[in-house]
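testing teh design pipeline on a random one, pls ignore if ur not involved
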């Protein structure tokens, strides 16, 4: 009985926070890392009691990396990770993130790597990564089943990790405008590759090295699926 009551309380609190009545970061610990000088790493631990933005905790110092691991951050809200001119890498890992609002990430001119793996995301909406220029994006080990048709457009991505999700369809529209070298989509639920499956990758087609579809549910590949590609390594074990 006590366990059930506690469960209901936690669910109620989650619903309240999802509705926008809680700060984005409440009782969250983060680690800030400085890479300067190059041969030395400086680590600084910060406790955030209640805040809607990380910028005030990061900008006063010369940090390049943000690490949030195994915390409780159900929703990343608009502007919550933005306006940080020196940050090169952001990790929000295994922290129960269920939703990312469009506009969460912006004004991050030096950001190269974004790691959101091990969370509870079920959907990536259009606009979540708009105007974000990163080389590597990791969304593996989530529960993602839905991707907006322009989810990753014009991000300048080289490496995209979507392993261990619940994606059941493939659309090259997702990747338009990215010079991708590697797309990792192992352990999903993709069943079919349609005709012209890489239409929106043609501009950079000769630069893609690997697409990993291992441990999917592929049953059908259209005869024209690979039209327009000059070179591609496919892992479909």
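output:
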């Amino acid at each position: 009985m006590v366990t059930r009551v506690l469960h209901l309380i936690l669910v109620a609190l989650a619903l309240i926070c999802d509705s926008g009545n809680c700060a984005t970061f409440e009782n969250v610990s983060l680690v800030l890392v400085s890479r300067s000088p190059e041969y030395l790493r400086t680590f600084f631990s910060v406790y955030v009691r209640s805040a809607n933005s990380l910028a005030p905790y990061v900008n006063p110092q010369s940090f390049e990396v943000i690490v949030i691991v195994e915390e409780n951050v159900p929703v990343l809200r608009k502007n919550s990770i933005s306006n940080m001119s020196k940050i090169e890498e952001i990790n929000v890992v295994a922290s129960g993130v269920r939703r990312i609002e469009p506009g969460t990430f912006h004004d991050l001119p030096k950001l190269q790597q974004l790691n959101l793996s091990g969370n509870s995301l079920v959907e990536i909406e259009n606009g979540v990564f708009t105007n974000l220029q990163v080389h590597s994006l990791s969304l593996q080990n989530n529960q993602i089943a839905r991707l907006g048709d322009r989810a990753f457009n014009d991000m300048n991505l080289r490496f995209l990790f979507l392993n261990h999700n619940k994606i059941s369809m493939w659309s090259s529209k997702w990747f338009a405008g990215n010079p991708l070298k590697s797309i990792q989509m192992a352990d999903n639920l993709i069943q079919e590759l349609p005709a012209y499956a890489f239409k929106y990758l043609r501009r950079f087609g000769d630069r893609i090295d690997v697409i990993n579809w291992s441990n999917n549910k592929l049953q059908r590949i259209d005869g024209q699926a690979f039209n327009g590609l000059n070179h591609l390594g496919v892992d479909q074990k």
